[in-house]
Write a structure and sequence with these properties.
The complex is a heterodimer of chains A (about 250) and B (about 425).
Chain A lengths: L3 E7 L10 H12 L4 E7 L12 E4 L4 H5 L2 H6 L1 H9 L3 E5 L1 H5 L3 E3 L5 E3 L7 E4 L6 E11 L2 E11 L1 E4 L6 E5 L9 E2 L1 E2 L3 E4 L10 H12 L17 H14 L2
Parallel strand pairs in A: 1-2, 1-3, 3-4, 4-14
Antiparallel strand pairs in A: 5-6, 7-10, 8-9, 8-11, 11-12, 13-14
Helix pairs in contact in A: 1-6
Chain B lengths: L1 H17 L5 H10 L13 E5 L4 H15 L3 E3 L7 H9 L12 E5 L5 H4 L7 E4 L7 H4 L2 H9 L8 E5 L3 H4 L9 E7 L25 E8 L2 E6 L11 E7 L4 E4 L2 E4 L5 H16 L4 H10 L6 E7 L2 E7 L3 H13 L4 E6 L26 E7 L3 H10 L6 E3 L3 H11 L2 E6 L4 H11 L2
Parallel strand pairs in B: 1-3, 1-4, 2-3, 4-5, 5-6, 6-9, 13-17, 14-15, 14-17, 15-16
Antiparallel strand pairs in B: 7-8, 9-10, 10-11, 12-13
Helix pairs in contact in B: 1-2, 2-4, 3-9, 3-10, 9-10, 13-14
Classes of the chains: A alpha/beta (about 250), B alpha/beta (about 425).
Chain lengths: ~250, ~425
């Protein structure tokens, strides 16, 4: 059977802090190496796009000042994004993108910026400009798949009232300094603060995202339907950090 | 406390120099004893600060040489560090007990986040700003906050701003400095200028009104001629504009005069332009600048060439995407078969976040003429993973031990490029010297 994964990377030209574009490189290669056609489309401010026609929507993080520019455009797409989610388009959100799907976030200059309000979580700013910065390891459960996710976090935002966290923090901070949990996952969206970028060192998460995306048009598709794809580099890169940080 | 602070700094610097150390500790002691010690110093002659993400060291060194060659007795932190304490060490070890700095010119390279500690506290005559790129964001937080910390100390600044007129992040500073005068330097449109780019991470939005910026041309990264689509923010007319540049021959023209740049790449010519802007501001003749360019020392690990028995190895430091992209362009120019060895560390001075390797166009070396890529360093596997996802088809090897990685590279090709992050640079250099023995 021929599969196609169609991705829309929103605001790609400035929501791409900390190497987040690496996530797209990973999805592309892990699809194409398995004969899955990979189509990457982008959506900029003011561009007409029906987001519900994609298998995956991806939104990364940006600098505060740049992020503010996209708010009116993003909010104007609220209905369309909701339609996409209702029609099983999977959503991958990193950092700023994750915050924007909640109620609101407080920027570093204390202004309150409204989010899409699909979820109850909201984001305060770190006290006195403090930020959660450093390597992070979390223990996540993705629909039964237990896996350690490794990345690098760098955020002032303190995301609170998270009902469905992505994982428990083993090393690092996560959603907030004291919270002990990281990210958000509810089957429809996966939001996280993890850069690194997220997917290269976490091939299981990458394949999980591919499987979730393909389920839009192939309801019975399972992660185990993806042919195995192994490289020694991600295994060793993970081992180096786990050995260094968890001992 | 002023006298005690000066004496303590001098004594500790002397004591540390006996055991071959120095740096920031004496200055930290001085600052502990008198937090306002910098304010109490007196200066004679020009005081010049240099900051920016890339090129501040070579620019500050060339400005120091410019003033020395002109006959000034110059104090600089060429050998010291560029943070508050290191700069304090430099100044206090070179002043009298009454706090008079023993020189008639001062050139200080200042870390971007430390400008706020230095600029308001000493009588700065000229403040040179090269550029702002993403650099070690885990330390510097977002670049915007960094620029903000500089803008906050500009309202009372009365000296000269010597600004890169082709970087919107730099040009914006003048709006926060109503009491200062600006000199703009840069490079005119030339045969390398591009109408579009995929390299720029900055310079997308107007720093004043937030509307999109448009560029009539790019020189590299987000450096170019820009204008806001909504308000009046745009590239200023350049006071110092280099033209007819030739990157092969490393030459350029300024004011009908011909110059040879001491270093490779367009970014180096921006440093030359900054030096010429300082010369103009200080009424120093261009002949003096020419002498400085001709005698500029080649810094270690900046396109440093090692040759032995027909084998060539070129070593380059990389520390952020913009600098790394310029290094990639240099390697890409060489179409001969080669082996590339990349040393990626993640210690504090390297940046503990290695995600920047995904913002760097390693694709430029992912080519058929690259016969093998060998990765080493603390994050060797992350580096290899980046190359793997860049779709490199040749052999991609991780070798943990640095010496072995370099000697293996040298055994596989007579044309080797070594790329190392900050803390890996000297060990890599030593490994090359050892491997070529």
């Amino acid at each position: 059977m021929n599969y196609t994964m169609k991705v829309c990377w929103m605001y790609h030209d400035f929501m791409d802090l900390y190497g987040d574009k690496g996530n797209m490189m990973v999805l592309k290669k892990r699809c194409e190496d398995r004969g899955i056609e990979f189509i990457l489309d982008t959506c900029g401010i003011g561009e007409e796009k029906d987001l519900s026609t994609y298998d995956l929507i991806f939104l990364g993080g940006g600098a505060d000042k740049e992020q503010i520019n996209l708010i009116p455009d993003l909010l104007s797409r609220k209905e369309n994004i909701k339609k996409a989610m209702d029609e099983k388009t999977f959503v991958l959100l990193i950092c700023g993108g994750y915050q924007l799907f909640g109620q609101y976030y407080i920027a570093a200059d204390n202004s309150k910026i409204s989010g899409l309000q699909f979820y109850d979580y909201y984001t305060d700013t770190g006290k006195a400009g403090s930020r959660c910065i450093g390597n992070i390891i979390i223990d996540a459960n993705l629909d039964g798949l237990q896996t350690k996710i490794i990345g690098f976090e760098n955020h002032g935002g303190q995301t609170l009232n998270v009902t469905n966290p992505l994982g428990k923090v083993l090393v690092g901070y996560g959603n907030s300094f004291e919270g002990g949990y990281e990210g958000f996952y509810d089957g429809k969206i996966l939001g996280t603060y993890l850069h690194g970028p997220l997917l290269p060192k976490n091939p299981e998460v990458a394949d999980f995202v591919i499987a979730k995306s393909l389920q839009k048009n192939h309801q019975t598709f399972k992660m185990s339907d993806l042919s195995p794809l192994e490289n020694e580099y991600d295994k060793n890169a993970r081992k180096v950090l786990i050995d260094r940080l968890m001992k | 406390m002023k006298l005690l602070s000066i004496i303590a700094t001098k004594c500790s610097a002397f004591a540390l120099s006996l055991i071959g150390r120095g740096g920031s500790l004496p200055g930290s002691i001085g600052l502990k004893l008198d937090a306002n010690i910098l304010k109490k110093l007196t200066f004679t002659g020009p005081v010049i600060l240099v900051t920016g993400t890339n090129g501040k060291t070579s620019t500050a060194n060339m400005i120091t040489d410019l003033l020395s060659t002109q006959g000034y007795h110059v104090i600089s932190n060429r050998k010291g560090d560029n943070l508050k304490a290191g700069i304090t060490t430099t100044l206090l070890t070179n002043c009298s007990l009454s706090g008079k700095v023993n020189a008639n010119a001062c050139v200080l390279e200042v870390d971007e986040l430390n400008v706020r500690h230095i600029l308001p506290n000493i009588p700065v005559t000229a403040f040179v700003v090269n550029n702002f790129f993403r650099d070690q964001l885990d330390r510097a937080r977002e670049m915007e906050q960094l620029i903000d910390s500089i803008e906050k100390v500009l309202p009372n600044y009365k000296g000269e701003l010597i600004l890169n007129g082709n970087d919107p992040n730099v040009v914006r500073l003048i709006k926060k400095a109503p009491n200062a005068h600006a000199t703009y330097y840069g490079i005119a449109k030339n045969k390398y200028s591009l109408p579009k780019t995929n390299e720029a991470s900055e310079g997308k939005f107007c720093p004043h009104c937030g509307a999109r910026l448009t560029y009539s041309f790019y020189q590299y990264s987000h450096i170019g001629e820009f204008a806001c689509t909504k308000c009046d923010f745009k590239s200023p007319e350049l006071d110092i504009s280099l033209y007819d540049i030739d990157l092969e021959k490393e030459t350029f023209y300024y004011n009908n005069e011909f110059f040879k740049s001491p270093y490779e790449g367009m970014y180096s010519m921006y440093n030359c332009s900054a030096v010429l802007a300082c010369a103009k501001f200080l009424n120093i003749k261009t002949d003096v600048a020419k002498k400085v360019f001709a005698n500029a020392p080649q810094p270690k690990g900046r396109n440093e060439k090692f040759e032995k028995n027909g084998t060539t190895c070129i070593l380059n430091l990389v520390k952020n995407p913009t600098g790394a992209n310029e290094v990639m362009k240099v390697i890409e120019k060489d179409q001969k078969d080669k082996v590339v060895c990349i040393v990626l560390n993640d210690r504090e001075q390297d940046g503990t976040d290695v995600s920047w390797i995904y913002d760097t166009f390693f694709e430029k070396i992912i080519k058929d003429s690259t016969k093998e890529i060998i990765c080493t360093g603390l994050r060797a596997n992350d580096m290899a993973l980046r190359i793997y996802y860049g779709n490199y088809k040749g052999p991609l090897t991780v070798i943990e031990d640095l010496d072995t990685a370099i000697s293996t590279s040298l055994s596989k090709s007579d044309n080797v490029y070594a790329i190392a992050t900050y803390t890996a640079l000297l060990p890599t250099r030593n490994a090359i010297l050892k491997g070529m023995k």
